[in-house]
Design goal:
5 helices; nine-stranded parallel beta sheet; alpha/beta; 2 domains; Udp N-acetylglucosamine O-acyltransferase, Domain 2; UDP N-Acetylglucosamine Acyltransferase, domain 1
C-alpha cells in the first residue's frame, strides 16, 4: 500500500505516515507527527507537532489535533504531546489540545467516537470506546473511563473523573466525580441511577447489574455516612472487580462525588 497526499496538503518532512494513509486537501501535518496505517484525514485537518495518531482512524474536516494548550500557564516553546489510539472516528470541528507542562500529554484511547464540535482540553485522559456527543466539552486534566457516554453539550469541569460505562446526560454540568456504571444529569449534575442499558451493552450480566444497583443503594440511598457505606459495600460485595472499580473511584476522588439529591432518593426507592 502507498500513502496518498493531496497536492494542496502540507506535510512536514519530519512526519511519519503509515501505509494506506490518506491526507486530503488543505490538511496541515506538523513536525514529529506519527500517523498509523489506514488513517484518513478528509480535508482542512490540522495536526500539531509531537502528535501520534493510531491506525484506521477517520478524521473529518476542520479538526485540530495536538495544537497548543489553551492553559494560561502554558510556556511558549514547551514540548508536550498528544496521543490518539486506533480506530477513532473524529468528526467535524473537534479540537484536542496538547499537554501544558513539558513532557506531559493528552491521551485518547481506541475505538472512540468524538462527534462534531467536541473538545478535549490539555492533559485529559480518555479511555477506550468512549462516545462524546456533539459539543461535549472536557476541561483540563479530566479523566474519562472506558465506554463512558457523554451527552451533547455537556461540560466536565477540570480534574473531574467520569467512570467506566457511566453516562452523562446532555446539557449536564459536571463539577464533581461521576462513579462507574451510573447516569448523571442536571445543573450541577448528580448521579441518578445505574446505567442498566450501558452495562448490558458492555456485556455485564443481570447478576452483575444487580450487584451494582445494590452497591449504589447502599452508598447513597440509606442513612449511612459515606465511610460506613463504603465499608458495608466492601464487606458484602468487595470481591467483585466491577464493585472494586466503584470503591477505588470513591477513595481516589479529589473533587468529591456528584452525590444523588432527594429526588433521586425518592425515585430509586420507589422502584
Amino acid at each position: 500500500m502507498t500513502v496518498s497526499i493531496d497536492k494542496f496538503a502540507e506535510v512536514s518532512p519530519d512526519a511519519e505516515l503509515g501505509d494506506g494513509c490518506v491526507i486530503g486537501p488543505y490538511c496541515v501535518v506538523g513536525g514529529n507527527v506519527t500517523i498509523g496505517p489506514g488513517t484518513h484525514l478528509h480535508s482542512h485537518v490540522v495536526i500539531g507537532a509531537h502528535t501520534s495518531i493510531g491506525g484506521d482512524c477517520e478524521i473529518f474536516p476542520f479538526v485540530t489535533l495536538g495544537v497548543q494548550s489553551q492553559d494560561q500557564k502554558y510556556v511558549p516553546g514547551t514540548v508536550s504531546y498528544t496521543k490518539i489510539g486506533d480506530r477513532n472516528n473524529i468528526r467535524e470541528f473537534v479540537s484536542i489540545h496538547s499537554g501544558t507542562e513539558a513532557g506531559s500529554s493528552t491521551e485518547i484511547g481506541d475505538d472512540c467516537a468524538l462527534l462534531a464540535h467536541a473538545h478535549v482540553a490539555h492533559n485529559c485522559k480518555v479511555g477506550n470506546k468512549v462516545i462524546m456527543s456533539h459539543g461535549a466539552t472536557l476541561g483540563g486534566h479530566v479523566v474519562i473511563g472506558d465506554r463512558a457516554n457523554l451527552g451533547g453539550l455537556c461540560g466536565i469541569h477540570q480534574f473531574c473523573h467520569v467512570g467506566t460505562t457511566a453516562l452523562v446526560a446532555g446539557l449536564a454540568r459536571v463539577v464533581q466525580d461521576v462513579l462507574p456504571f451510573v447516569i448523571a444529569e442536571g445543573v450541577p449534575a448528580t448521579m441518578r441511577i445505574v446505567n442498566k442499558v450501558g452495562m448490558e451493552r458492555a456485556g455485564y450480566t443481570a447478576d452483575e447489574i444487580r450487584d451494582v444497583r445494590k452497591a449504589f443503594r447502599t452508598l447513597f440511598l440509606r442513612e449511612l455516612r459515606l465511610e460506613e457505606a463504603v465499608q458495608r459495600v466492601k464487606d458484602e460485595l468487595g470481591d467483585k472487580p466491577y464493585i472494586q472499580l466503584m470503591i477505588e473511584a470513591i477513595e481516589s476522588s479529589q473533587r468529591g462525588l456528584a452525590r444523588p439529591d432527594t429526588a433521586t432518593l425518592e425515585f430509586n426507592t420507589s422502584q
